[in-house]
Amino acid sequence: MPMNPNSLKLEELAWPEIGALVKEGWTKIIVPLGSTEQHGPGLPQGVDTWHGEETSLRAAAQLYRTLVSPVVPFGYSPEHQSFPGTISLRRDTLTMLLEDISESLVRSGFTFIYFWFGHGGNWAVARDCLHAIRNRWPGCVITFTEDIDRYIAETWDSYPLKEGIALEISGSHAGEFEASVTAALRPDLIRLDELAAGDPRPLNEIIESMMKYGIESVSKNGVLGDQRHPDSDRGNRYLDCMANWLIQDFNQQYKKNEK
Ligand SMILES: [Zn+2]
């Protein structure tokens, strides 16, 4: 069996390959959590799912013997529910899903399971669930991007400035940041004529109203930021920025949990 698999994606490997890889020490895996939710008039619904998976793959390519689970395309997105097409899971459903994914991966021999967030709304649900199950299986570590505030501060809320993009443009949801990422990953799916500006305020100023009354209470078109400036090269650099952060956090957590 090859030491280097043909793919880092679990769903593209066959069971004998996976069994052999686990025996050879490929026991670490990233599980990307995405969502199917509105991203304004100019972007499709899968944005969080695609960048969650892509950053996981870019990171895994540089991490030691690490695979990537299929991305979970549904998440906790009740704040987007009033827009057509958004699919949101109940808290309990997502909790049970994360437990079942963890248990299945543990049964397969994985010993370090790291959940990563393409959609930030999954974080609070995942935190409660993953803290509760982190020591359920002796010898296995179930972990995730614990410091989501630091992640946002060091990527979404600072990197665009280095590119000369103001944060009210890059935005926290479906703005330039995600438009550029989509331009890098799925340029065919951008509705160039429909791209629109939304509410420019930072997330911490509007999150309360948004979670209580839905995102439409702060932005009628569902955009936070301004999606009219997509650039695929910049999108690729955004993806690398997120992947580099993932690598650093993953390695830190791995070291912390090493016996
Ligand atoms: Zn998004």
Features of the shown structure:
10 helices; four-stranded parallel β-sheet; alpha/beta; binds zinc ion; 259 residues; Rossmann fold; 44% helix; 4 strands
Number of helices: 10
Summarize the amount of helix as a percent range: 40-55%
Fold-level CATH name of one domain: Rossmann fold
Sheet with most strands = 4 strands, parallel
Mean pLDDT: 96
Radius of gyration: 18 Å
- Total strand segments: 4
Protein model, in words:
This protein has about 260 residues and is of the alpha/beta class. The chain is built from ten helices and four strands. It has a four-stranded parallel β-sheet with strand order 2-1-3-4, with helices on both faces. The mean pLDDT is about 95. It binds zinc ion. Zinc ion binds near residues 39, 48, 173 and 178.
Topology:
Blueprint: H1 15-23, E1 28-33, H2 47-60, E2 66-68, H3 91-107, E3 112-117, H4 123-133, E4 141-144, H5 148-154, H6 159-162, H7 167-170, H8 176-185, H9 203-213, H10 232-257
Parallel strand pairs: 1-2, 1-3, 3-4
Helix pairs in contact: 2-8, 2-10, 3-4, 8-10
The structure holds zinc ion.
